[in-house]
Amino acid sequence: MIEGARWRKWLWFYLPLGAFILALLFPFYWMVVTTVRPDGELYRPWNHPLYSPFWTSNPTFEHVKDLLQETLFNTWMLNTMFIALVATLISLFCGVIAGYALARLTFRWAGVLGTAIFVTYLVPQTLLFIPLAEIIRDYRIGDTPWALILTYPTFLIPFCTWLMMGYFKAIPRELEECARIDGAARWQAMVYIIFPIAVPGILSAGIFAFTLSWNEFIYALVFLSSPEQKTVPVGVTSELIRGDVFFWGSLMAGALIGSIPVAIVYSFFVEHYVAGMTGSVKG
Amino acid sequence: MATRGPISRALEREDTLAFWLLAPTLLILTLFIAYPFVRGVWLSLSNSTVGEPGHFIGLANFYKIFSDSIFRTAAYNTFVYTAITTVFKLALGLWLALLLNRHFRGKSWVRAFILLPFIIPTVLSTLAWKWMFDPTFSVFNWLFWKLHIINSRINWLGDPELAMGSIMMVNVWRGVPFYAISLLAGLQTINPDLHEAAAIDGANRFQRFWYVTWPLLLPVTMVVVLFSVIQTFADFQLVYVLTGGGPANATHLFATYAYQIGIGTGLLSEGAAISLAMFPALLLVVVFQLWYIRKVENR
Q1: A283 touches chain B (CB under 8 A)
Q2: What's the rounded Cα separation, in Å, for the pair B231 and B182?
Q3: Could B124 and A135 be called an inter-chain contact, meaning their C-beta atoms sit closer than 8 Å?
Q4: From CA B22, how far away is CA B28, in angstroms rounded?
Q5: What is the CA radius of gyration of chain A?
Q6: Interface check A128 vs B, CB under 8 A
Q7: B92: closest CA among A73, A19, A260, A241?
Q8: How far is B194 from chain A (nearest CA, A)?
Q9: In terms of Cα–Cα distance, which of B54, B181, B44 is closest to A270?
Q10: What does the domain layout of chain B look like in residue ranges?
Q11: Buried b vs exposed e over B149-188: b needs ≥16 C-beta within 10 Å?
């Protein structure tokens, strides 16, 4: 070992890595501290002598109680869960079969359709939300969960299709050919031989789609109007701020609890999630 | 072998099967992407407001928005916002990826935790930032004050000069993990033998990065950057939560201004025109991305 290698490693490795971790995670710590801090301590100006930012000696669950009892937070959670699950299932179904067709079958327009689906994957929600709001109104599904369940697949299906194409391409064709020789129909080979092998891919796509739906904001903001129909992100930002008054304790409690389902799904399937994320850019 | 029905037999043909497998996807994308796009173009060429169908007025909406100084600020902001945050996200993301590419204890934990800013719903984590930027209760002000850097408060979101910078900071915070993890995946596909060979040939650390790692990482980097540019360019949530476009309309982006005009004041056609003004720039990025992917695939 070279003399001084130790402090070198600290300077070039541990120090920057520690700084990254601190900067990336501090806001979450701040959410937690704010959630359990009593109002008296919360509203002390930054130059108050008793401003104690990093801990609280009188933790309280007042804000969490307020959030769960005084607001429609539980309803928003259930709404978001329902919308995210149904939108994910629809998108998985469409994405898996479309991905299979594009990866495995030879037909006219295959290239054009693949490119078209890829391009819709890149269309941001903010480009079309105004005409979509009109269309939602025409179909009379405004202010219902269906406004989101039917529109979320527009960004989820292209993603699922793209990800599944990558998975299907990696599965050797011989597997299907063997099944066909044994007498399986074309679609049977697909459903019974290929889909089971692609389960890890389907799981990745599903988890990623679920978190994307839970995250979505602008469609939910524009297409839903009554408080009891809202999703968590929209409910927390619109209903916990009255005029200029911010209820920071409850807001942070809402942000924290509203993130838990995504965090749980994520923590159980980190590897699948990362695979989905990196797969989505590699294609 | 069992006899097959007519449906099963029809599905033996690849193009028939492909048609039925793609039909649901194409139906949804036509109804909720292609049709809204056409409808949006029509809307932007008409004078509809909420509840009023309106009629064709040509490019009048576009003339109107291009002479609107708030729109011009929003357009300028969007380009600056995208350019600056992309540079920072790429530089910091690459640095973090290189750090994570080493072997150390607890690596998988660090990697899992680092992604949190990216997976937690953006609006919710942005609320925490809004609270940290609060003019009266800001923890940053407390910290800088304790470190004797400032005497009076910094008004992070209320000062028009500073507000855009604060928003960019949050965008970088949220984007760095995505860059880092994607680039890390790219780094892990690079054969370590290449590094060893370069080291034996006498290349130093920097040369090994510049002549071995970077060229091999470039395709992944390009795709990550292009994805991120599109998302950043069309961003809405950060500005909506942090400033709502204020103070004095200084921090609008295309999307937030379109929302304010189209939904806030109900001038649907003008809002649609503002949204569609993003289209040429987005199209350029998408075309470039398709061209680049094709080029890499054919190599």
Answers
A1: yes
A2: 16
A3: no
A4: 10
A5: 24
A6: yes
A7: A19
A8: 22
A9: B181
A10: 68-297
A11: ebeebbbbbbeeebbbebbbbbbbbbbbbbbbbbbbbbbe
Q: Return d(Cα A74, Cα A249) in angstroms, integer.
A: 17
Contact B187, B97 (CB under 8 A): yes
Residue of B nearest to A240 (CA): B127
Copy the structure tokens of residue B35.
Answer: 């049709």
Instruction: Report d(CA B289, CA A174) in Å as an integer.
Output: 33
- For residue A245, the cross-strand partners are A242
A107 touches chain B (CB under 8 A): yes
Beta bridge pairs of residue A246: A241
Q: Which two tokens stand for residue A134?
A: 């009109």
For the domain covering A65-282, report its CATH number: 1.10.3720.10
Could you tell me which CATH number the domain at B68-297 has? 1.10.3720.10
Beta-carbon contacts of residue B9 (< 8 Å; ≥ 6 apart): none
Rounded Cα distance between B205 and A14, Å, is 18
User: How far is B221 from B215, CA to CA, in rounded Å?
Assistant: 10
Contacts of A112 (CB under 8 A, 6+ apart): none
Q: Could you tell me the sign of the dihedral formed by the alpha carbons of B198, B202, B205, B207, in that order?
A: negative
Residue with tokens 């037909």: A107
User: ipTM of the predicted structure?
Assistant: 0.90
Q: pLDDT per position in chain B (299 positions), as tens?
A: 455 677 777 777 888 899 999 999 999 999 999 999 999 999 999 988 777 777 888 888 899 999 999 999 999 999 999 999 999 999 999 999 999 998 888 888 898 899 899 999 999 999 999 999 988 888 888 888 878 787 778 888 888 889 999 999 999 999 999 999 999 988 988 888 888 888 888 888 888 889 988 998 998 899 899 989 999 999 999 999 999 888 889 999 999 999 999 998 888 999 999 999 999 999 999 999 889 888 887 77
Other CB atoms within 10 Å distance of the CB of residue A108? 9
Round to the nearest angstrom and report the end-to-end CA distance of chain A. 43
Nearest-angstrom CA–CA distance, A155 and A87:
10
Closest residue of A to B42, CA-based? A131
State the Rg of chain B over Cα.
Answer: 25
> Which run of H or E residues covers position A241?
strand A241-242
User: Tens digits of per-residue pLDDT, A181-210?
Assistant: 888 888 888 888 889 999 988 998 999 899
